[in-house]
Structures are given as structure tokens and as C-alpha cells.
């Protein structure tokens, strides 16, 4: 037998959808006997795993998913895909909410937010000894402080704009 692997571009891109369409065309042409994927949600890319599994099975291709322990050769796969599809749908609908809540929680903690601070601010990390932290991966307290030199520039920019001395484009050029 012959084994090929097909690598899809990042999920959520137009190229990923084109890759899925190319894969389905190969299945329709009888070029793939068994399709093995790590995770059905990565294959379906938000397009509904059930519809894709039905399409693959309709053309006689066996579908295996490692993560879900799913196999269209097993009796009852139709019920399994319904449960998987429901789970994925619920997961995706709450994912954004969980991410937002996690970021808000992190913003309220002493370790602060991740990412780049706006111009005029800097992050100051507490000394490990002062914090009483020991170990290889300390989660040190961080505070956000004003960067004095940059704060002066921001005040000048604001004054120039607020007093109609400079437009936004003039400020950007300076």
C-alpha cells in the first residue's frame, strides 16, 4: 500500500479551505482509501465535522481521528460524530469568553498582563528576594510605571493637538 501525508496551511485561512477542497476532490476521485487526522476539528476548520465526515464516508474513504478515537469502520460512528460535533460547537462558542475572562483575571493579578505596554509606560518587575520567591520559574510581581521622558513627549503631543497647533499628521511626521 502507499501512504502520503498532506500538510494543510494554518486553520482559519483561505488556503486551509482550499486545501480541504483539494483533499475532498482527491477523496471523490477515489485517490484516498484511508484518511487519518489528529483532530477532527482541525480538519473541519469550523465548517462542521459531521458534514465532512459524511462526505468522506459517502465516497468510501475510511476516516480515523487519533484525538477523538474515532473510526468510520466502527459500528455506531454516526452517533459518535454527532456527539463530537456537539462538543466542538459548545467548546467554540465559549472559547472567546474563556479567553477574555482569563486575560481580565491576569490583568487584575500582581503579575499583570502580558504584551507590549503603550508608549509612556514600562513594566517593573519586583526583586525575587524581596518577593520571597524561590525556584527556577518565579512569577514575580510586576507593576506598570510611567516612563518620565516618554510622558513628557506625550504631554507635548497632547498640548499641540488640543490647542490646534498641530494636526495628527504633523505630529506623526515630527
Could you explain how this protein is built, in words?
The protein has 174 residues and is mainly alpha-helical. Helix content is 50%, strand content 11%. It contains 7 helices and 5 strands; from the N terminus they run αβααββαβαβαα. The chain has helices at residues 14-28, 40-44, 49-58, 77-108, 128-131, 148-162, 168-173; strands at 34-37, 62-65, 70-71, 121-125, 142-146. Strands 1-2-3 form a 3-stranded mixed sheet. A two-stranded antiparallel sheet has the order 4-5. A hairpin with a 4-residue loop joins strand 2 (62-65) and strand 3. The N and C termini lie far apart (67 Å).
Q: Outline, from the CA principal axes?
A: elongated
Q: DSSP helix count?
A: 7
Low-confidence stretches: none
Summarize model confidence as the mean pLDDT: 78
Total strands: the figure is 5
Summarize the model shown.
This protein is mainly α and 174 residues long. The protein has 7 helices and 5 strands; from the N terminus they run H-E-H-H-E-E-H-E-H-E-H-H. Helices cover 50% and strands 11% of the residues.
How is this fold's topology laid out?
Layout: H1 14-28, E1 34-37, H2 40-44, H3 49-58, E2 62-65, E3 70-71, H4 77-108, E4 121-125, H5 128-131, E5 142-146, H6 148-162, H7 168-173
Amino acid at each position: 500500500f502507499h501512504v502520503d501525508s498532506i500538510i494543510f496551511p494554518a486553520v482559519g485561512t483561505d488556503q486551509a479551505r482550499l486545501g480541504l477542497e483539494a483533499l475532498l476532490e482527491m477523496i471523490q476521485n477515489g485517490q484516498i482509501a484511508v484518511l487519518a487526522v489528529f483532530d477532527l476539528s482541525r480538519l473541519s476548520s469550523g465548517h462542521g465535522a459531521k458534514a465532512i465526515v459524511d462526505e468522506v464516508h459517502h465516497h468510501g474513504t475510511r476516516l480515523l481521528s487519533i484525538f477523538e478515537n474515532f473510526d468510520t469502520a466502527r459500528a455506531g460512528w454516526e452517533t459518535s460524530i454527532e456527539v463530537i460535533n456537539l462538543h466542538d460547537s459548545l467548546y467554540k462558542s465559549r472559547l472567546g469568553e474563556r479567553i477574555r475572562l482569563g486575560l481580565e483575571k491576569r490583568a487584575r493579578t500582581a503579575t499583570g498582563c502580558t504584551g507590549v505596554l503603550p508608549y509612556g509606560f514600562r513594566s517593573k518587575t519586583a526583586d525575587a528576594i524581596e518577593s520571597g520567591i524561590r525556584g527556577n520559574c518565579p512569577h514575580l510581581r510586576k507593576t506598570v510605571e510611567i516612563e518620565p521622558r516618554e510622558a513628557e513627549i506625550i504631554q507635548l503631543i497632547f498640548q499641540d493637538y488640543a490647542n490646534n497647533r498641530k494636526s495628527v499628521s504633523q505630529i506623526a511626521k515630527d
